Amino acid sequence: MSDALQVDGATRPAPQRQARPSRNLCDAVSVRRAADIPGLREFAHRSRAEDVLISSWRRLGPGRFTVTARWPHDHDYLAPRHGRPHVLLAGETIRQAGLLLSHTEFGVPLGHHFILGDLVYTTDPDYHVAGEGPTRLTIGVECSRTRIRAGMLAGSRFDMTFRDGDRIVARGHSHVNVTSPAVYRRIRGERLTARRAPGPLPVPVPPELTGSAADRDVLLSPTGRPGRWRLRIAPGHATVVNPANDHIPGLSLLDAAQQAARALTAPEPFVPYAFATEFHRYAEHGAPCLIEARRLPTAVPGTTAVEVTGTQLGAPVFVSTLTAMAPYF
Question: Quick one: average pLDDT of 93-107?
């Protein structure tokens, strides 16, 4: 899963705004606040300000940071549901925190590409957000297996622990590799200019099966076979879909996975508290991507586990395992 600066309609920062290697960044300023950093949306690889979740960060030591995040209460897609944080929020926060630290603390210039090998997180299934405003979280970040090449980050594992006050509400990690634009061009070849083709969309499954509010948010189209769908990329879904990408964004695949798990287990409620994904290759525009879900046996009493796989042209794209508390009737 690649993440690069491809933002439609956003002003790209001038070269002097690009992050450079800085061992003493937080010696000069103890806390870097997001509002003080030009090009924050670009550092978080988001085109809309309302999708940026990180508000400040601080270096604690070599490879150790603390990050402050704000989870929105009134977002058009990522708002809490029945008091529970949206299932994608922890994963998206891990992604944004890793990207931002890579740019601001590890010298990765804007325009470089980030390839996620995995994204794994577990949340507290009993955690509910309180109040009517954003939820403020403090995140401890530990970097390991870090590789530096030519004075900037080439790869690392980011481990993160989320706290609401003294309460641990989530833990997770991701493995990240960084590649230059030149290398990325060689990897992608002719696909570098690929974009989603306009045209009629496949019919969606009913939104209530996927936990979606409307057809525009549904990423699955029926195939006539139980537990199997075709990936459906709806235009205008700005939080999950970036039309400037040369491939289908990883966040779309994560969302499709959680929708497939909900559809498979319907009418039982399925709200995953654990979400682990391995990415194998890019999901390309212009070819059907099949999403399949199956129940897994689980060794944890009182839980339901679902495995979701994405395949394209017969090759695996990703595999996700989602775990939820089993419903009690």
Answer: 96
Give, in order, the Cα–Cα distances in Å from 132 to each of 74, 138, 274. 9, 19, 26
Confidence of residue 199 (pLDDT cuts 50, 70, 90): confident
> If you write DSSP's letter for every residue of 208-254 in order, what string do you get?
HHHT-SSGGG--EEE-SSTTEEEE---TT-TTT--TT-SSB-HHHHH
Judge contact between 217 and 237, C-beta under 8 A.
yes
Q: What is the pLDDT of residues 178-193, one digit of tens each?
A: 999 999 999 999 888 8
Instruction: Kindly state the tokens that stand for 281.
Output: 């290759």
Name 143's bridge partners.
158
Q: Contact, 99 vs 45, CB < 8 A?
A: yes
Q: Specify the 3-state DSSP secondary structure of 303.
A: strand
What is the pTM for the complete model shown?
A: 0.88
3-state secondary structure of 298: coil
Tokens standing for residue 231: 């990936």
Q: What token pair was written down for 222?
A: 């029926």
CB 254 within 8 A of CB 91: yes
Q: How many residues does the chain have?
A: 329
Per-residue pLDDT, 328? 62
What 3-state class would DSSP assign to 28? Answer: helix
